[in-house]
Structure formats: structure tokens, C-alpha cells
Design brief:
402 residues; alpha+beta; DNA polymerase, domain 1; hpI Integrase, Chain A; 3 domains; 3-stranded antiparallel beta sheet; 48% helix
Amino acid sequence: MTKHTNGGSNKKPRKNTRTSNNTGSIRQRPNGLWEARVVIGTDPATGKQVRKSVYGDKEKDVRRKVTEIQNALDNGTYQEPNRMKVSEWLEEWLNTFCAHKLKPYTIVAYRGIIKNHLNPAIGAMKLQEVRGLHIQRIYNRMIADGASPKTVKNIGAVAHKAFNVAIKQGLISVNPCDAAEFPKMEHHEIKPLTDAEIPIFLNAIKGDPMENAYALCLFAGLREGECLGLSWNQVDFERQTLVISQQLQRGKTKGGQYYIASSTKSGRSRTIMPPPIAFEYLKSEKRRQLANQLAAGTEWNNEHNLVFTTDKGKNCAVSTFYKGFKRLLKEMGRPDARPHDLRHTAATVAIASGADIKSVQSLLGHATASFTLNVYAHTSEKMMEDTAARVQNYYDQLKTSL
């Protein structure tokens, strides 16, 4: 330590103490603050060391900060402090990393999640200050307000993606979402139509404007949007196949317009071969549409060559599809049934008929066979029983041959 005299001045002498190689020395500035300079990297352009100044009221405070920085550098977790707020980063993430690779519908959904859930809770915080505790509070508050675990998980997924990109950009070192826990997921039991209810359903929909659409969802396992977005260009009557590559969607903003999204929910197109009865209903719809077109004359406008349209050729509203289905099923004694249960019915019938899980996955357009198996595990039990019986029969025949 070197003492400096100042000719009788009352100011305290500045101190200068050596530290590690990365910091050079810790010194006391004329204003009383202590300072150390830490090597935090190398400038790739010049090859020179990049140093950072660290300050504190006491020498020990500076030493502690230096040690923390050195440990972070050694662990590869050091982040240069910045004042960017969470709301600023989320906007940057959407505009720079999401806008050109995600569907417009998805971007709108992400913006809604950020506006309604993330920004009100953590938007004003500095990006580097967010911890798992803050994310957990968001989850807990949503559950307390009545949100479903699935909704909470969807919002957490958006936050996780945004923070992951921030890590890649060197803005933060860890993802705070990793330190938060999702609420327990509640798997609702699916309730497809029973063998006894299927003929009752087909009889109940006779004469309904959406009869052929409901029947196609039942026989082909289509989602509502896939059914209402199906084009005649995707129907091959000769080969009896359907190409499922688009869906009808509606903008999530208030008064949002319907549009045809050029992809399915999974983002993958699929070619399916439903049972021939499905094409009987499609032929019926073809005749019905032709009659409507002749009656509408110049007012007919089927811009996307859709299979299911209004009397004037416009797309059908999802709300019309849904409300009509609920009315019919209530009259049937199944007020709990949803249009999506027609898709479940198609899957359970296929499995019960002996189809393997891989084939059912292809029919439904699931990303993996494991997901299909997880959803329809209870139905696949019958397949396992049938398999066990066949294997037993095989060994019984071997015994008789001995």
C-alpha cells in the first residue's frame, strides 16, 4: 500500500492495492469511492483486452463484486449489465425473431399473451432481473383467476421461447421459466360417440345444412377448421383420398375476418383415405352446392373453391357449425358432446377396428405416434387384449403340433 501526502490537506489519502491478474489493482478515487477494473473479454476486432470498471463505497464491496464477475466469467454465465426492460425485449423478439417465420394467426396470439399476461406482471422489470419467482407468480395468479392449466402452460411456453432467444443473444444467462413450475395438468376424459350413438347421430343430422360437414368430421377425423377450410381441389373422388393442408381461421382481434390458413394446426399436410362412405356425403354436398350456385346466379362467390359454403358461396362460420352441432346433440341426449368429439370418435372406431396407432396418427395428423397413444391409451387396451388373444392362440396351436 502506498500512502500519498497532500501538504496538510484534510482529504484522506488514496489507496492502491494489488489484486488478481484479471483486475490489476483496486484503488480509492478522490471522491472516496473504490474502483477496480476487470478484464471481461477480448475485442475480436483489435485483439485487445476489454475491461470493465467496478465501484463500491468500501474496498471489500469492490472485492466481492470482482469475485462475482470472475466466477461468472469462469462459469460462462457473465452478462454485461443492460437496462433493457422485459416489455422492450418482447417487442423486439416478436418483430425480429418471430414475424418472418410464424403464421400471422400465431403472431396475433403471442401479442395477446404478452399484452394481457406478461407485460402487466413483468413488463416494467429489467430483463436481467427476472427470476423464476416472478414467473411462478404469473402462473399462480392465473390459476387463482380461473385459468386452466393448459392455458397457463401455453402462456409459459411463449415466455420460455422469448427468454431462450434472449440467452442466445447474450442478454441473459439463464431462463427464469426453468425455475418455475407449471400447475398440474388435468387430462379430461374424451367422450366419443358410442357404437349405439353413431347411427342415432347420423339420423339426427339428416336434412341439416351442415349434415355433410358433420358426417365428414365423423368419418375422416377432421378438425372443424380443416373441414370448413377443405377445398374441392383437395378431394380426389377417383382415388378416394383427401389432402388436408389448410384450415379456416378467424382473426383473433375484435371483429376479425375469416381467412384460409395455408397449413394445419400441426403445420404439416397429410393425405388420408377415409372410408368410402365419407365420399358419399361429399358427393351429396357437391350436388347441394351446385344447386345453390345455380340459384344464386351472379351473387355466387366461392373464392377458395371450398367444399362447405353458404347459399351464396361464402365460407361457413365456425360459430354456425358449433351451435348447430350442440343443438343436435342436446336433442340426442348428449349435451356434453363437442364437435371435436367427432374426431375422437373417428380415432376410437379406427382403433377398435384393428388399425395400428401409427395409422391413426397419420389419419389425425398428430406430430408423434406417442401423442396419439397417450390420448387414446384407454381405447388401445382393446387392441392389446386382442393381440394377447392372438398370441395365445398361436402358442396353443404350437402345443397341438407337438
